[in-house]
Amino acid sequence: MRLRYAGTCRVCNAALDARTEAVYERATKTVRCLSCSPPVSADVAVVIGGEPPAAPEAPGAGVAVVEAGPVDAGVAGASARREYERRQAKREERIRAKHPKLGGLILALSDDPQSTTAWDAGALGEERLGTRLDELATDTLRVLHDRRIPGTRANIDHLAVTPTGIYVIDAKRYVGKRPSLRVEGGVLRPRVEKLMVGTRDQTKLVDGVLKQVELVRLIVDEDVPVLGVLCFIESDWPLIGGAFTTRGVDVLWPKKLYPRLASDGPHAAQVADLHARLARAVPPA
C-alpha cells in the first residue's frame, strides 16, 4: 500500500518515505519494504497503485490486489512482536499514570527492562530468518511461521517442509555469544550433553525443540523424517567448524541451514500435502 506517513521497515530498518509503496502486515500492524516482502499469506496483502477497493470491478482496472493462497503461512515473529509491544505499552501506561507530569521525560530517559527487550530481540531474529526462508521457498520447499501449539502458550518459530523431511526450526538471537557442546561423564558416569551459549547452560532450548519435534511427528504420522534445528542468528561462530548435533537436534547458523533445506530427497511428492496438513493442525499464533 502507499504509506500515508513515513515509516521504517521492521526487518531491514530502511527508512520509508510517505507515499512509498510497501507491505502492511495486519497481524503486527507494521510495514515492510517490498524488498523484504515474503510470499503473500492470509495476513499480508500487497497493493500497487493506491488503496484497494472492497471488490475490484475487473482485472487490470488500475488497482492490482495480490490474493492470498489457501494456506496461511503466517508472519514470522508475529506473536513475539505483539508481546513486546504489549509489555512496552503496559510499562508506558503505568509510568504515565504514576507520574502524570514527568511520565514522558521518564520514558525518554529510561530503557525498557531486559524482560521486555528480550521479546524484541527474539522477534527480530525470527523475522530475519523468516524473510530468508520465504525467499528460498519453492513448490518443494514450503514454510510456515509462528505456529501456535494447541493447548499450550508455546509456539513453533518455523516449519520447513522439504523433499528430505520436515524441519522444526527454533530461531535464537544471541548476539556475539558462541554456542558450544559440553560433554560430561562417559566411561564411569552416564554421558550428559549440555548446550552452552557463552558461559550459560541453555540445554533447555534443546528440550523445547525435542517437544516440538514429537508434536509434529504425531501430526504427520508417516514415514517422513522430522528434524529439529536450533538456528542461532548473529552469534559468534568460529571460522572453521562450529555446527554440531546434540540429542538429535542440529545446532547451526542460517547459512549452514539453507543448503540442507534446498537438498533433493525422496519426499518431494508429499511436500504440498504435508504443508497443508501442518497448516491446519498448528494455526498461526
From TrEMBL:
Show the InterPro entries listed in the entry: NERD
Q: Which domain of life is it from?
A: Bacteria
Pfam families in alphabetical order: NERD
What is the protein's given name?
A: NERD domain-containing protein
**Species in which this protein is naturally found:** Nocardioides marmotae
Task: Print the organism lineage.
Answer: Bacteria, Bacillati, Actinomycetota, Actinomycetes, Propionibacteriales
